[in-house]
């Protein structure tokens, strides 16, 4: 009976908000997340122009992207505390304002240091907004509809970052790199004005003490690991910047974990990992992002550095996959609502295995259309799995821990993406340099083949997870309660 009462209270929470209010909040979140998600990868195309204008080296300029990822990794664990402590509307508007200030500063940046500070502001705003969006959607929609809703939301965090380099290239060619930030700033300003009108305090809040030590430890843990793997490309794995950062990150992470389990009011509640379904969803998301971001870096290198094609061709090679991912994301949400996560994991994991092993056998005479097709297969897997993993994982933890679950999953996913980006590029370069029988582009291609072979292993682990570890629970008939618009699942 207690379960019925809990479901009754949860359904009442959903029906207090009209369908129109939900839709307006949802559209606002979509617009915001599409705009800010583009910022993560847009500079990869614009970097040469920025480097020239600011008179800096490519190595220094790369920090505009690496530093952004590092700041994201540090701010993510903080979002759980902020969402539980600060009223929803105030926090959401503040995050939008921070991102907007960062965008305007970037657009008018007179030197690298101002631009770097502005990128950190953008990362802080994006980190808060990304975590909030998922928790808000999981809160305002009932569970029998959340798969479709999260599927549509998945468009913003899957398609936008992959399409962004192509759009940024077009903007730079037609206008200049400053225009990228002005255009996104205009979208964020529109979203801010809209949010003032449609948002309300969706998430419950309570007074809680800010655990400064836990925050510092989380910053060292997530930041150290992200920085360590990010340094592989510049210094090699056996070096102080890499091993030192990784050591600090791992020690900070161990201390952070021990402190959270001992604390009565943890900064980031790691008890969510005791739920089997949530733990599997975290593992699946990590494997998926590891492969997704690794391949996202290798594909442009293959097209430009190995095949000698232009940046525009590189963007066009990736574009069909992005469109397929965007198309499948809401469909995958509907499939999840109807049959669960297991079949999606098996099909998605299998698609990743096939796409990555296919790239292992690519050679110099292979048609570029083969790479296009394999990338479409890989992106299809992403569309099938990215948001269903988030939905499934959070569905199986207590509602009061949703903010913590989302913050932890997003943090680990961000770190996995940074690791995938640095690790597989590093492996490609290392194998190419150590090749004794090949040289030039042939050696680089061999290094890329080996990297995709290792991605196949990671994809195989994801496939095996769906095959052996996931079992969808049978859905019970919904319970209708008089006076409520929707049944209790």
Automatic annotation (TrEMBL):
Subcellular localization: Cell membrane
As for membrane topology, the entry says: Multi-pass membrane protein
List the GO molecular function terms.
Answer: transmembrane transporter activity
Q: Name one Pfam family in it.
A: MFS_1
Q: Which residues form the Major facilitator superfamily (MFS) profile domain?
A: 21-474
Q: Which residues cross the membrane?
A: 24-51, 63-84, 91-114, 120-140, 152-171, 177-198, 210-229, 235-258, 278-299, 311-331, 343-362, 368-390, 411-432, 452-470
What keywords tag this UniProt record? Cell membrane, Membrane, Transmembrane, Transmembrane helix, Transport
Alphabetized InterPro entries for the sequence: EmrB-like, MFS, MFS_dom, MFS_trans_sf
Main localisation:
membrane
Q: Name one GO cellular component term.
A: plasma membrane
> PROSITE patterns, from UniProt?
MFS
Classify the source by domain of life: Bacteria
Protein name as annotated = Major facilitator superfamily (MFS) profile domain-containing protein
The record lists the organism as: Candidatus Enterococcus testudinis
């Amino acid at each position: 009976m207690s379960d019925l009462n809990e479901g009754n209270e949860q359904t009442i929470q959903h029906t207090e908000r009209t369908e129109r209010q939900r839709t307006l909040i949802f559209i606002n979140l979509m617009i915001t997340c599409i705009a800010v998600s583009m910022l993560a990868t847009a500079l990869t195309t614009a970097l040469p122009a920025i480097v020239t204008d600011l008179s800096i080296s490519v190595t220094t300029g790369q920090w505009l992207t690496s530093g952004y990822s590092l700041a994201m990794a540090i701010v993510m664990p903080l979002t759980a505390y902020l969402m539980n402590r600060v009223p929803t509307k105030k926090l959401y508007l503040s995050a939008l304002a921070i991102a907007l200030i960062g965008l305007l500063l970037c657009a008018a940046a007179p030197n690298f240091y101002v631009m770097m500070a502005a990128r950190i502001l953008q990362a802080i705003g994006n980190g808060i907004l990304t975590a909030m969006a998922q928790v808000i959607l999981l809160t305002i929609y009932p569970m029998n509809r959340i798969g479709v809703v999260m599927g549509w939301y998945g468009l913003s965090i899957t398609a936008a970052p992959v399409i962004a380099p192509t759009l940024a290239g077009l903007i730079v060619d037609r206008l200049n790199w400053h225009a990228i930030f002005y255009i996104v700033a205009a979208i964020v300003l529109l979203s801010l004005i809209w949010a003032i009108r449609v948002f309300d305090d969706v998430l419950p809040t309570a007074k809680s003490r800010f655990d400064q030590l836990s925050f510092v430890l989380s910053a060292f843990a997530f930041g150290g690991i992200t920085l360590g793997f990010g340094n592989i490309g510049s210094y090699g794995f056996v070096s102080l910047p890499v091993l030192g950062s990784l050591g600090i990150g791992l020690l900070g992470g161990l201390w952070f974990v021990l402190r959270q389990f001992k604390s009565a009011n943890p900064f980031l509640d790691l008890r969510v990992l005791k739920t089997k379904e949530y733990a599997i969803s975290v593992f699946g998301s990590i494997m998926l992002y590891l492969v997704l971001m690794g391949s996202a870096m290798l594909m442009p290198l293959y097209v430009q550095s190995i095949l000698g094609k232009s940046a525009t061709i590189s963007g066009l090679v990736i574009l069909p996959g992005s469109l397929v991912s965007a198309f499948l994301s809401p469909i995958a949400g509907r499939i999840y609502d109807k049959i669960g996560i297991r079949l999606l994991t098996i099909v998605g994991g299998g698609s990743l295995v096939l796409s990555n092993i296919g790239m292992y056998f690519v050679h110099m005479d292979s048609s570029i259309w083969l790479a296009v097709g394999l990338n479409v297969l890989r992106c299809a897997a992403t569309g099938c799995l990215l948001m269903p993993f988030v939905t499934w994982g959070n569905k199986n933890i207590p509602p009061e821990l949703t903010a913590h679950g989302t913050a932890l999953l997003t943090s680990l996913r961000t770190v996995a993406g940074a690791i995938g980006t640095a690790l597989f590029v590093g492996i490609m370069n290392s194998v190419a340099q150590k090749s004794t029988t090949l040289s030039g582009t042939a050696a680089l291609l061999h290094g890329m083949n080996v990297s995709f072979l290792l991605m196949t292993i990671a994809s195989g682990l994801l496939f095996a997870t769906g095959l052996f570890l996931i079992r969808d629970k049978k859905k019970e008939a919904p319970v209708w309660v008089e006076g409520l618009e929707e049944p209790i699942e």
